[in-house]
Design brief:
The protein has about 110 residues and is mainly α. The chain contains 5 helices and no strands.
């Protein structure tokens, strides 16, 4: 999923505000963006401010990748699930290849 420059600008502005312990509002995101000489569509700052309302962004950032400590059994189950997913992907790839082979039968629709 590629983010647009408008998205990234608002995200970085929100992170700057969080780092300075300033509440994230549409006006403050706009202020940061104007200071950085970044022009975006006017609806983005309020959209991001509303989506982050009530979210502890610092906690969200520090929780990325942090998983609860678990025993070896769940890890083995995850490995088995990953193996199963890989096998299913191979089946799908083979099926797609066979469908592609059927598409070209040596004649065209309008021949």
């Amino acid at each position: 999923m590629a983010l647009s420059n408008d998205d990234l600008a608002c995200i970085y502005a929100a992170l700057i505000l969080v780092d300075d312990d300033v509440a994230i509002t549409g006006e403050k995101i706009n202020t940061v963006l104007k200071a950085a000489n970044v022009e975006i569509e006017p609806f983005w700052p309020s959209l991001y401010a509303k989506s982050l309302d009530g979210v502890d962004v610092k906690k969200l950032i520090t929780a990325i990748g942090a998983a609860p400590a678990v025993g070896a059994a769940p890890t083995a189950g995850a490995a088995a699930a990953a193996t199963t997913e890989a096998a299913e992907e191979k089946k799908v790839e083979k099926k797609e290849e066979s469908e592609e082979e059927d598409d070209d039968m040596g004649f065209g629709l309008f021949d």
